[in-house]
Amino acid sequence: MKVRFWGVRGSVPTPGPKTVKYGGNTACIEIRGDDDELLIIDAGTGLRELGNFLISNDLPNGPLKLNILLTHTHWDHIQGFPFFGPAYIPSSIITFRGPVNAIGKKLDEIVAGQMNYSYFPIKLSELRAQINFVEIREESFDIGSFHVSTCYLNHPILCLGYRIMYKNKVIITIYDNEPYRNIFADTKKSNSSDFEDQIDDEAIKEAEDYVYTQNQKILDFASGADLMIYDAQYTSEEFKTKIGWGHSTIDHAINAGISTQCKKLALFHHDPVRTDKELDTLQVQTVDKARGLGARHMVVFFARERLEVNL
Fold first, then answer.
1. Which of the four pLDDT bands, split at 50, 70 and 90, describes residue 196?
2. CB within 8 A of 242, min separation 6: which ones?
3. For residues 204-217, average pLDDT
4. DSSP letter assigned to residue 77
5. Chain-centre distance of CA 154, in angstroms?
6. Residue ranges of the alpha helices (H) in the chain?
7. CB within 8 A of 291, min separation 6: which ones?
8. CB 161 within 8 A of CB 151
9. What pLDDT, on a 0 to 100 scale, did the predictor assign at position 189?
10. How far apart are CA 182 and CA 37, in angstroms?
11. What is residue 104's predicted lDDT score, i.e. its pLDDT?
């Protein structure tokens, strides 16, 4: 099985001379089985280049039947689809699977919304490919030879992590996830709330148990991965002013990799302000930190566009 990264950036595309090495496109990952079975995770701006590759590389062998797994429907994870070449080819069959949205709109309505005529000249209904939408929750299902399981993550809208098993190999995606925290304990410590006196120790303990359970659930879901692709948008210092934004830190990623005993840890969803030079520096620091924590057999790296990982 092979993984290829087509977009590794978070929040917004960042083209320019300072992001050439790691890339400026938003989230898009290609997974290939040994017989060219194909899964796509997320449809950020990296999907455009992947579409061009599929037309050149795969289409000559027959019609494209593509499965796209969406972690969630924030714009940086769907905005590549209007520019996805295979969607304009009549023989293509494209199936989206993604979480049911909490605000009441269906998955097809959300993807179609960015192609409203006010924003884009071609409507979803005018695309020539056959496009299907399947709403999913926490569940397991098969797509060809891939066995897929899902787990809810902690993000401002409903978001899924994916566990993809192919033969005896496992890929995990845990991004756009912020570790759960005990807001009652945080409020009590801050001494800044009018309600702090109403928060008793029992409420703090109950919340602590819940937080532990939810964080452990995600770690259990991700255990034993050959490759784990993990949210590392912030440093620990940056995270202090980003709490509640729905992302993790580099330290969160390292600790998760160690806890789950993954073999390869790909740090993903790079902050849009992060330059190639900064990522190079963080790469060295992160490897040293992981080794210092005893993770000598875990390969740790920052994902970059066009990087291929063989499993």
1. low
2. 233, 234
3. 91
4. G
5. 12
6. 46-57, 107-113, 183-190, 201-221, 236-239, 250-260, 276-292
7. none
8. yes
9. 55
10. 42
11. 77
Fold of 2-304: Metallo-beta-lactamase; Chain A (3.60.15)
The mean per-residue pLDDT over the stretch 93-97 comes to 98
Sheet of 130-136: strand order equals 130-136, 93-99, 65-69, 38-41, 28-32, 2-7, 308-310
Alpha helices in 68-138 (DSSP H): 107-113
State the DSSP string of 134-151.
EEE-S-EEEETTEEEEEE
Q: What is the pLDDT of residues 135-148, one digit of tens each?
A: 999 999 999 999 99
**Closest among 210, 120, 228 to 173, alpha carbons compared:** 228
Above 70 in pLDDT, residue 5?
yes
What tokens appear for 134 in the block?
Answer: 């399947």
Q: For residue 229, what are its two tokens?
A: 């692709």
- Mean pLDDT to the nearest integer, 168-196: 78
pLDDT-derived band at 206 (thresholds 50, 70, 90) equals confident
Count other C-beta atoms under 10 Å from residue 266's C-beta: 28
Q: Helices 250-260 and 201-221 meet at what angle, rounded to 10? A: 70
Q: Which of 5, 21, 1 is nearest to 307 (CA)?
A: 5
- Give CA torsion, residues 182, 262, 242, 240, to 10 deg: 70
Per-residue pLDDT band at 202 (split at 50, 70, 90): confident
Sequence spans of domains, the chain: 2-304
